[in-house]
Design goal:
The chain is of the alpha/beta class. It has helices spanning about 15-40, 140-150, 175-185, 200-210, 215-230, 235, 245-260, 275-290, 305-310, and strands at about 75, 95-105, 115-125, 130-135, 155-165, 165-170, 185-190, 265-270, 295-300, 310-315, 330-334. Helix 4 (about 200-210) crosses helix 5 and helix 4 (about 200-210) packs parallel to helix 7. The chain is globular. The chain starts with 14 loop residues before the first helix and ends with a strand.
């Protein structure tokens, strides 16, 4: 607060009280900054490349898969018990291997209750292949993609991801390892576009390239070309996606996920909101990714799209609630 000059309005509070108030405000701001920083380190935002990095805890042995009570009454992840394992290995051409994967959550509003999202899921995806994940609503298709992307820790089982010449085990990887893996190897298209308001569609699509060292001008040119292929005209590219229709937002979402040549692509219902013409464009983009050697794991409901892009089908079924484990879900070759 600046000095009070003659003719200025009288302060609402006396000077000494105003100084104390200012000091308290500064202290409160510092506390809020410290609180936000601690929350930022503990949690992450789904819009960032490091979205959903799990909070690592030391190995804990607890009953019922290490369930941690939550004071807020929401569902939380069951803490897995990690065991020492040798260096992970992938066979020639293997890009992703999922073995006996299970994922459980704790629903604290019901007892607590154990919610089994995935149970005994196994498959392998090679370079240049597209694995289509199918199944009814609630069978865990999106949860499976989030496990492969590193948002969810496996409760049991293993996920191995090709990273250059080696492999990374997501059960053993730390948050920085997962972030690096995403920057180098994993592309992800979620069901919904979540971006910062008032940022243009062109900048939203170009951002993954810029984050990986591409000059901004070249990144924007690549983004504009891809948006054009997806029938987003230049007059809309300068506008924020919040002003777009659902189908237009989905096309921006797809362009953002496909603009850089990720070795592994995860697609969660990429054609759900698209018309026939844009579905065919997406199918062509997926085929181009396969041709350059990318491994694609996609959730598909459209049978036509399924037949055009998939090399194998993995059908998921919801785990039986409270019952015995269901038989392992297997991949079905086309």
């Amino acid at each position: 607060m600046g000095p009070i000059r003659t003719g200025d309005r009288k302060p609402i509070v006396p000077r000494h009280e105003s100084q104390n108030l200012e000091k308290r405000q500064v202290e409160a701001m510092n506390l809020e900054i410290m609180r936000r920083e601690s929350m930022r380190l503990k949690y992450s935002n789904n819009d960032r490349p490091d979205a959903g990095l799990p909070c690592r805890r030391p190995p804990i042995v607890r009953p019922a898969a290490g369930n941690v009570p939550s004071p807020m009454g929401e569902a939380t992840e069951a803490v897995p018990t990690l065991a020492a394992s040798p260096s992970p290995r992938l066979g020639p051409g293997e890009m992703v291997r999922v073995g006996s994967l299970s994922k459980t959550f704790v629903l604290h509003l019901s007892g607590p209750a154990i919610l089994r999202a995935l149970e005994d899921v196994s498959f392998t995806v090679h370079s240049g292949e597209c694995l289509a994940v199918t199944g009814p609503s609630g069978s865990g298709k999106s949860s499976l993609l989030r496990c492969v992307y590193g948002n969810y820790l496996p409760s049991s089982g293993e996920i191995l991801i090709r990273d250059g010449l080696g492999a990374v085990s997501l059960r053993e990887a730390g948050p920085r390892d997962i972030l690096g893996l995403r920057l180098r190897s994993l592309g992800y298209v979620s069901q919904f576009l979540r971006v910062i308001p008032r940022v243009s569609a062109l900048e939203v699509v170009a951002e993954p390239l810029v984050a990986r060292g591409c000059p901004p001008d070249i990144a924007r040119a690549e983004a504009s070309e891809l948006l054009g292929r997806l029938h987003v005209p230049r007059r809309l590219q300068a506008l924020p996606p919040a002003t777009f229709s659902g189908g237009e937002r989905q096309r921006v979402n797809l362009a953002r996920g496909l603009v850089w040549p990720a070795p592994i692509l995860l697609l969660d219902e990429p054609t759900a909101s698209l018309d026939q013409a844009n579905k065919m464009v997406v199918c062509e983009l997926i085929r181009e990714a396969k041709k350059r050697g990318a491994a694609v794991i996609g959730v598909f409901h459209d049978r036509e799209v399924l037949s055009l892009v998939s090399d194998a089908i993995h059908d998921l079924r919801p785990p039986l609630p409270g019952g015995p484990p269901r038989p392992p879900s297997g991949g079905q070759e086309d």
